[in-house]
Amino acid sequence: MTRSVSASGPLEGRIALVTGGSRGIGAATATTLAGLGADVVLTYRSSLDEAKAVAAACEEKGVKATLLRADLDAADGAEELVAAVRERVDHLDVVVSNACASYPRVPLSDMDPTALGDKVRNDVVLLHRLTTAFVPAMRERGYGRLVVISSGSSWGPTAPGLAAHGVTKAALEGYVRYAADEFGAGGVTVNGLALGFVLTDASSVVPQPARDALANATPAGRLGAPQDIANAVSLLARPESEWINGATLPVTGGLNYPLNLSRVRGH
Known about the structure:
Elements: E1 15-18, H1 24-35, E2 39-44, H2 48-59, E3 65-69, H3 77-88, E4 94-97, H4 113-141, E5 144-151, H5 163-183, E6 188-195, H6 208-217, H7 226-237, E7 248-251, H8 261-264
Parallel strand pairs: 1-2, 1-4, 2-3, 4-5, 5-6, 6-7
Helix pairs in contact: 1-2, 1-7, 3-4, 4-5
């Protein structure tokens, strides 16, 4: 693809990795960071056509976009992704850990221990490999931003079938705090975003009455959109965010988690 304009902005000259960048939150994040001047590396699992469309939208903003296929359910998925990134770019300045492994949507009482362990392992190992592979060099260059996409489910039950999701997100938020303590100097920050309900393909299975109840329970009066999350990521990716470190910020439109069920039910 050919750049149609010259990129400029607070991230001009930076390179950002966005995992799960072909759809939803990842796609919105990639195009937003591109709009700030960053070259972007996008990962996708199976949605190549969608990933190409996102890459084209990024390059229309005057930056370079690179596509990488990544299967994060595979045992060696994290290692393969790190190797693929290193083959295509010489460094990263911003890492947005957005993609996650699949998981069984069942209660803990019905969950196979191996399935739960695989979910936690795959997501935590991916974050650990991205951190150890790219963050030390960020410190050497004097700038780096690691942003981890988490969920309000890390604070407690929010919906049936999200136990594995919530347990894993809680582990990732713990990792954020430890990584910020160890790596959060020399211009590097490590932070997370705990999301409320966001309208994406993944959340489209939630029945409309439940969506309406959640929107009613949210002080902002609506449900989240991928662009809302991308805007929050862009805040943490900017140079001006250097004093925010080791935090997981709620991005919920004001809805407190665990959910206030009396509000959700409209009582």
